[in-house]
Amino acid sequence: MILSISGLSHGFAGRPVLRGFALDLARGEHMLLLGPSGSGKTTLINAVAGLLTPDEGVVAIEGEVINQLGAAERDRLRRRRIGIIFQSLRLVSALSVRDNLRLAQRLSGGGVDEAAIAALLDQVGIGHRADAKPRALSQGEAQRAAIARALVGKPALLIADEPTSALDDANAERVARLLLETADQNGSTLLVATHDARLKAFIPRSRTLAPALSEAA
Ligand SMILES: Nc1ncnc2c1ncn2[C@@H]1O[C@H](COP(=O)(O)OP(=O)(O)OP(=O)(O)O)[C@@H](O)[C@H]1O
Asked: Which amino acids bring their CB within 6 angstroms of ligand 1?
C-alpha cells in the first residue's frame, strides 16, 4: 500500500475531529476526500504528511509509520515520498519557478535533474515561465508551478488541498485532468481533499468526512 491509515482519531481541546478514520490506497489508485469546511480534511492531510501527530491511530506511507517517527525522520519521509499542493501554493517567492523545482528535487534526496525539471514544466504547460518569479505568474500558472514542484521528487503520494474550489467549471475540469494526468505519468497516487463535489466526475472513488460535532452536540 502507498498509504494505509487505520484507527486515526484526533481532536482539538477535547473536541473530536477525526474518529477511527481508516483508508488504504494502492499504487496508482486515486481518491477524493470530500467534506464540508471544518470536517477535518486539513487535519487528515497534516497527519498523513507527518505535520501533525494524531492522538491515536496509524498512518503508514509505503509501510513506514510516519506518526511513530521522530521529527527528522518524518521530514525525510515526507520529502522523499509525498508531494503536497497546498491551497496557498507556498512557492518560494525569492526563487524562479525553475529554482523552486530544483530546491524541491534536492530536498527529495535526489540530485538536480535539469531535463526532468524542463519536461515537467512543459508537461504542466509553463515551460516558457521557468525563469519567472512566482509573483509574476498568473494564479493559474502559479498553481501549475505548484503541481510541478510537488511532482518533481517523483512522490509515491501526491496530495492536493482544495485545488479547484475557487475555479469556474472549465478551469476546475482543466486542473482535475492535469492532476490526474501528471499523477499517472509520474506513477503517483493522488489524494485530493476538497469540498468541491464537481471533482467526483473526474475522481469517482471518494470518501466523505462528516462535519465535526458542533459545540452543543
Ligand atoms: N490547531 C487547531 N486548534 C484548534 N482547533 C483546530 C485546529 N486545527 C483545526 N481545528 C478545528 O478542527 C476542525 C477541523 O479543521 P480542519 O482544518 O481539519 O477542517 P477542514 O475540513 O480542512 O476545513 P476547511 O475546508 O475549512 O479548511 C475545525 O473545527 C477546526 O476549527
From this structure: 12-13, 17, 35, 37-43, 195, 212
